[in-house]
Amino acid sequence: MSVRIIPRLDIKGPNLVKGIHLEGLRVLGKPEHFARYYYEAGADELIYMDVVASLYGRNTLLDMIRRTSKEIFIPLAVGGGLRSLEDIQEVLRAGADKVALNTAVLARPELIREASRRFGSSTIVVSIEAMKKPDGRYEAYADNGRQHTGMDVFQWALRAVELGAGEIMLTSINQEGTGQGFDFEMVGRVAESVPVPVIACGGAGRLSHVYDVLTQGKADAVCLASILHYEFIASQKYDLMRQDYSTEGNIDYLRSGRSFSRITPATLVQVKDFLSARGIACRPQAQEPAGV
Questions:
Q1: pTM for this structure?
Q2: 77 pairs with which residues across the strands?
Q3: Which residues are catalytic?
Q4: Is residue 287 included in any domain, yes or no?
Q5: Residue 175: which CATH number?
Q6: Structural domain boundaries, residue 203
Q7: Alpha carbon 263 to chain centroid distance?
Q8: CB neighbours of 139 closer than 8 A, spacing ≥ 6?
Q9: Model pLDDT for residues 89-112, shown as the tens digit of each residue
Q10: Which of 39, 80, 221, 232, by CA, is between 20 and 30 Å from 31?
Q11: Is residue 283 one of the residues assigned to a domain?
């Protein structure tokens, strides 16, 4: 089977943002432009995460998903602030194909069973935000990495699948946004213990990290953000500063014109070519898009 390469779009208000360890969010641009670029370059899926939704108790992406689903014809997953069957149904009606659940199902795990029965297990992705503790334990966090739960990551992954989760998206808070590579040990332990696909997220800084998490970590899919976002910004295919970001977020990064030194940016085409050359089957991709 082919592995999936999935750009992750973290959203705050109207903007695409990126942080380190899920904190210090900085504005990178308008998500619709990045989504279009990734779609044309051969993304297998897109994941939209409203990173402040749980904090404010609501998901604000419905209009964005409606617009996106009319122009982009690959699976869309949406997460953040989804607390009930009604919330899930609303997002699916807006055009999403899947939902990513974290905070709500940690508080009430039975929601996984209810949602999978109503919408199908293939629609339900349980997102696990994992923090590695100094003693080596892995704890699941809620509210976009803001709230500890005391829940063991590996036990929680097994329980989520037993309740009906069709996929597990596993994010290492320790590695997220650092460009220092994935937590292969954690991903591998989860992938070997559950019978559903595992999406690895958090830490890719160069192409070899993607290869390593698919081989050493045995992930079924890889979720990428910084490595793709910084390439798009650096490529000058998109005039970032023609947009108005004054209403939301920290735009110092965009104004500076700097890149993040620990990240070696890459396109989706480069990612897939790198993997294919090393014997990992990828779904066919388009040519490099002309830009926005």
A1: 0.90
A2: 47, 98
A3: 10, 129
A4: no
A5: 3.20.20.70
A6: 4-277
A7: 17
A8: 130, 131, 133, 148, 149, 150, 151, 152, 153
A9: 999 999 999 999 999 999 999 999
A10: 221
A11: no
What is the Cα–Cα distance from 167 to 220, expressed in whole angstroms? 10
Query: Tokens standing for 238?
Result: 């998109």
Let me know if residue 206 belongs to a domain. yes
Beta carbons of 260 and 228 less than 8 angstroms apart: no
Longest dimension (CA), the chain: 49
Angle at the Cα of 265 (from 31 to 230), degrees rounded to 5? 30
Tokens of 86: 């009604």
pLDDT digits (tens, 9 = 90+) for 122-174: 999 999 999 999 999 999 998 766 778 889 999 999 999 999 999 999 999 99
Confidence at residue 209, expressed as pLDDT on a 0 to 100 scale: 97
- 36-50, 113-127, 144-158, 177-191: lowest mean pLDDT where? 144-158
Q: Enumerate residues 6+ apart whose C-beta is below 8 A from 73.
A: 39
Residue 117 resides in a domain? yes
Number of domains in the chain: 1
**Amino acid making up residue 177:** G
Given a cut of 90, whether residue 244 has pLDDT beyond it is no
